[in-house]
Amino acid sequence: INISASVKNPGGTLDATEVNINPFSLNMLGNAFTATAQIKTPISDPDFNLTANGTLDLGQIKNVYPLEEMSLNGVVKADMNLSGRLSYIDKEMYDKFNATGSINLRNMILKMKDMPDISIEKSTFAFTPKYLNLNETTVHIGNNDLTTDCRFENYMAFALKGKTLKGQLNVQSNHFNLNDFMTAEGDTVIAAVADTTTTTASEATGVIVVPRNIDFNMNVDMAEILFDKIVIKNLDGKLLVKDGTVDMKNLSMNTLGGSVVMNGAYSTAQSEIHPALNASFAMNSLSFAQTFKELDMVQKMAPIFENLKGNFSGKMQIDTQLDSVMSPIFTTTNGSGSLSTKNLNLSGVPVLDKIADATKYTALKNISVKDMQIDFTIKEGRVNTKPFDIKMGNMNLNLSGSTGLDQTINYTGKLKLPESVGSIAALTTIDLKIGGTFTSPKVSVDTKSMAKQAASAATNKALEAVGEKLGIDLSNAEKQKEALLNAAKQAAERLVQEAEKQKVNLVNKAGDNALKKLAAEKAGDAVANEAKKQADRLIEEAEEKGNALIEKAKNGETNK
Description:
The protein is of the alpha+beta class. The protein is elongated, with a radius of gyration of 39 Å. The protein has helices at residues 61-64, 86-90, 155-161, 288-294, 296-301, 350-359, 447-470, 477-510, 514-554; strands spanning 2-8, 18-28, 31-40, 47-57, 70-85, 98-112, 118-127, 131-141, 144-153, 165-173, 176-177, 214-227, 230-242, 245-255, 258-267, 276-287, 308-321, 334-347, 366-379, 382-392, 395-403, 409-416, 429-436, 441-445. The protein has a 24-stranded mixed β-sheet that branches. It has 9 helices and 24 strands.
């Protein structure tokens, strides 16, 4: 090992310092390596000349210096020269700055305690004054592989001054498990390129910080990526990294049993503790069950997915902040979207089971839905669903409402049954109120709404009967009025009788349970009272219509 070095300063100012190293040389088991350095005044804008030439066998270092808890192998060959003033780089005066040569790596293997093994079969860095080129290089980190070829611009200003590093990168991989680079607490083990001019996020978080001083245009083609419980395959698209933000352009992937195309931005420009995500997703044939299994967000906000058997497609836009483990902060989450599904099987869904119990229609506990579409919005973490239909043969369940982060649900529903099961004068629609939580829903029948509906349905039946009566050939308007009133009174009587029967049926179905019986009596009273009101109104309408017929007859008009 030979070193000849000098540092001189005549005094008065640090800028007058000069450094000279000529040479620093060594020979290790037949491999020679030599480096020289001359740094001339002023130090604030040095005129320097650096050279390196030779071979280093990294595997021989352990014979010279003990490497505790580390194993290192590989051969590094260097042949490079850098010369010029630092200000030439700042001013992009590359014609005055010299940077030539290359660094070659071969059969490099690094093993460290508590870290995955790192190996590089071969790689070459080539220098020019303006560019640093990295040829196609495959890095193996544990069971992960990453192949890249890159071209970096402004690399000297980045390395020496912390200026922005610009680059064009092509990245490929057969398998990359991001979980291998996170500790159990979510801390990052291997960080991205650090921003040398700002403070990065705390090491106690798993946030991926996007450095503000890189400007990369990346093409990504990765066969398989694992992140948390999510498996992503065939990831392909463009990433634009600039000013602490990653813009994703048509990033397509196969995941959650189907395919997704993503556009949007991930940014730590405003906060390195709570990154921002604003993205849109086009989804095709994703599995309900797999989505529930792999996405914590769905487990918290839509646990109903667990029991849905089938696939869904649609689109979603989301704007949210992320926490220290890269999960959405739901109180900041806003968005919108729509989902559609075909051939969906609904069984073991607590909400539908409760609806089936409340309506005494057990067929709802195991149904198949051919087509269904749901439109929704997200505001501050609460999902608001627009009215949507679940069509089940000759039945239809219409639902709308909202769900929250605490899994509370606030829905209203209308269950339209076949006329063959209607119980009050062709009453076939049951109004529902749905509350509680997904795992413990509470379903009740809206008796007040049903009473109005029952009376209205019976009134319509009566008017139809009156219409048939009017079709008889009557001799004069007085007889028509009389027939109209008689028909109306008969229909009103039937309406009240039907309501009284329904009241009795409701009480009988309640059984011996005192609370249920009391509720049934109140519901029956509501139906009966509403029926009486409608009956009175029916007779009033018949009277009015009869008088109108007589008035027309007096004016010489013909009634048919």
